[in-house]
Specification:
The protein has one domain: Rhodopsin 7-helix transmembrane proteins (Rhopdopsin 7-helix transmembrane proteins, Up-down Bundle). It is elongated and about 70 Å long. It is mainly α. α1 packs antiparallel against α2 and α4 runs antiparallel to α6. The protein has eleven helices and two strands. Strands 1-2 form a two-stranded antiparallel sheet. This is G-protein coupled receptors family 1 profile domain-containing protein. It comes from Adineta steineri. One of its GO terms (cellular component) is membrane.
Length: about 300
């Protein structure tokens, strides 16, 4: 493959990545906007669900903005290769890579937060503080942000982020860096989410004879939501397979395709886009956002002499 054709292929993949990012940003921004403008239609007992949904959509939008900036940098670099190489290999480039991982981790934790809320509704249904206190979940979001900032910080301090293909990232050809990145970013939220699901299933099997009919109905609804959260997690893992298979292929065959970075980051964006679609489709409380307000017909009773007889 000649340099000209390789450059053209890179530009095509850059453009596809930019288009997917723009689609994801538009989708999430629409729901963020609808949640904000239609707040008066929300029931009081659904405020926490809307806060968690807003948190998820916002995190996906921010993460995709960072990836969009990365694809734009790659596009500029592939068009102006000699000029762009000089100005982009900076410490700010590595800080942006760190912030991209922060946004990715925050998005994964937002999915875990949904499972945790349903876990509290099932296991501690008598303790309303754990599943109906809005301020508790606002505090939880703050803790989620702190964890997301701290966990990838060792990658930045250890200088693991490297400049390649006109952007900075964890180098996919270095086993140690990929393993550390997986342990720091992926393993905690995914393992917590799956652990919540397994513990909840075990609790239901052990205590199902003691549940009332009303509790069983509510538990079935909540466990369905947790199961869908787990399915979205598995979808994320499947879309992330290209990123984790690249180091294996490189180690076995000493081969690193020119398309490897595009494939890895497109997988991440598509996984979070899929997660947002699953959440939108299977969340009943979000249907109010596009439902028309019901027209209430107020009737009055006319009292006549015949009615009184």
């Amino acid at each position: 493959m000649t340099n000209a054709s390789l450059t053209n292929d890179n530009i095509i993949l850059d453009s596809i990545g930019i288009a997917v990012c723009v689609l994801t940003i538009c989708k999430t921004f629409i729901f963020i906007f609808m949640i904000l403008i239609r707040h008066q239609m929300k029931k009081s007992n659904e405020k926490i669900l809307f806060i968690l949904s807003f948190n998820m959509y916002m995190s996906i939008c921010i993460f995709t903005l960072f990836v969009l900036d990365m694809f734009i940098s790659m596009l500029k670099g592939h068009i102006y290769s000699n000029l762009f190489q000089i100005y982009n290999d900076t410490q700010w480039c590595r800080i942006k890579a760190y912030l991209t991982n922060v946004a990715m981790l925050y998005t994964l934790y937002s999915n875990t937060f949904h499972a945790l809320h349903r876990f509290f509704r099932i296991i501690y249904y008598t303790n309303r503080f754990l599943h109906q206190n809005v301020y508790l979940y606002i505090t939880g979001i703050f803790i989620q942000l702190v964890l997301s900032l701290l966990q990838p910080l060792p990658l930045l301090l250890a200088h693991i982020y490297q400049y390649e293909d006109y952007h900075c990232q964890i180098p996919l050809t270095q086993w140690f860096a990929v393993i550390i990145g997986s342990i720091v970013i992926w393993m905690p939220p995914l393992s917590i989410t799956i652990g919540i699901y397994m513990y909840t299933l075990n609790y239901i099997r052990s205590n199902s004879p003691m549940f009332t009919h009303r509790q069983q109905t509510r538990i079935r609804r909540d466990i369905t939501v947790i199961r869908r959260v787990v399915w979205s997690v598995l979808f994320i893992v499947l879309c992330a397979i290209p990123a984790f298979s690249i180091p294996i292929i490189y180690s076995l065959f000493n081969f690193f395709g020119w398309w490897a970075n595009h494939l890895a980051w497109l997988g991440f964006v598509l996984s979070f886009l899929g997660m947002s679609i699953v959440h939108t489709y299977f969340s009943p409380h979000l249907r109010i956002l596009w439902a028309r307000p019901a027209n209430r017909i107020h009737t009055t009773t006319v009292i006549t002499v015949a009615n009184l007889q």
